[in-house]
């Protein structure tokens, strides 16, 4: 299989390339910066995800796409639109034009960030974006559904939690995902025969997890790592931190707290 990783020079892209080394016939990266170092089965293409011609060129000869290119932070909508909205549209439209039938869409926990931490949710919970960033991921999920239903471009929608090397906060203990677990679930999305437009959560086997990830387990996901094995590192990251009530109450944390004017937050029990 020949795969394209958009955002392949970024934090998540580098992890996936490391975990996938030697597994696929070709890993081609597409990013604003070159991917370094390049492995023996890798190619690096430099380009802008908002440029359809560049995306379509990078898609040539590819069997499947892992789409991770994005503006990863909350920002003005003008900053988010080019990569997260136009770029995601370009990926799916280029896949359709080039005959690519499988896309892994790197969505986010922030697509459902306004659920309270006391509520455990699954993939069927309606989206509740916590930010303009989260809203852009909801749009990407809807784009994935359109292209699966209308054009046969199948997707695994991967709502990624916290993909840091180690969990760095109490919140991350619930949503952290290791590099090898993230690669495992991406591989399922690339290879499982029964994918249509499935939603799963990109989290490891965390005891404090807010998500019912049964949909991923039914596809064969068996996470190998646990956030609680790194509790000391997570709590060290909390030293000196001040949190707004919305940060502590909602699953989206600081993305919910920014500009929050939604009313009273129940006290933390």
Automatic annotation (TrEMBL):
Could you tell me which residue ranges the NAD-dependent epimerase/dehydratase domain spans? 3-162
Please provide an example of a Pfam family that matches this protein in its UniProt record. Epimerase
Q: Which Gene3D superfamilies match?
A: NAD(P)-binding Rossmann-like Domain
The family database entries (InterPro entries) matched by this protein are listed as: Epimerase_deHydtase, NAD(P)-bd_dom_sf
Q: Name one GO molecular function term.
A: oxidoreductase activity
Instruction: Enumerate the UniProt keywords alphabetically.
Output: NAD, Oxidoreductase
**SUPFAM superfamilies in the record:** NAD(P)-binding Rossmann-fold domains
Family membership noted in the UniProt record: Belongs to the NAD(P)-dependent epimerase/dehydratase family.
State what protein this is by name.
Answer: UDP-glucose 4-epimerase
* Species whose genome carries this gene: Alsobacter metallidurans
């Amino acid at each position: 299989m020949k795969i394209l990783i958009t955002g392949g020079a970024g934090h998540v892209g580098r992890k996936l390339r490391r975990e996938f080394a030697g597994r696929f016939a070709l890993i081609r990266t597409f990013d604003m910066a070159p991917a370094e170092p390049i492995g023996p089965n890798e190619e690096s293409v430099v380009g802008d995800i908002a440029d359809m011609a560049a995306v379509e060129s990078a898609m040539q000869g590819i069997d499947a796409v892992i789409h991770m290119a994005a503006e990863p932070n909350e920002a003005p909508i003008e900053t988010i639109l080019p990569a997260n909205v136009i770029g995601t549209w370009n990926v799916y439209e280029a896949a359709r034009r080039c005959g690519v039938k499988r896309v892994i869409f790197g969505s986010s926990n922030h697509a459902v960030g306004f659920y309270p931490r006391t509520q455990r949710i699954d993939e069927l919970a309606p989206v509740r974006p916590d930010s303009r960033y989260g809203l852009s991921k909801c749009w990407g999920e809807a784009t994935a559904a359109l292209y699966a239903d209308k054009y046969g471009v199948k997707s695994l929608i991967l709502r990624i939690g916290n993909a840091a090397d180690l969990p760095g906060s109490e919140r991350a203990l619930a949503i952290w995902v290791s590099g090898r677990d993230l690669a495992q679930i991406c591989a399922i999305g690339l290879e499982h025969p029964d994918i249509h437009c499935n939603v799963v959560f990109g989290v490891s086997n965390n005891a404090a997890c807010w998500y019912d990830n049964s949909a991923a387990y039914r596809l064969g996901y068996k996470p190998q790592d646990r956030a609680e094995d790194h509790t000391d590192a997570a709590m060290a990251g909390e030293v000196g931190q001040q949190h707004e009530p919305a940060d502590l109450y909602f699953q989206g944390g600081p993305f919910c707290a920014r500009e929050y004017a939604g009313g009273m937050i129940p006290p933390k029990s």
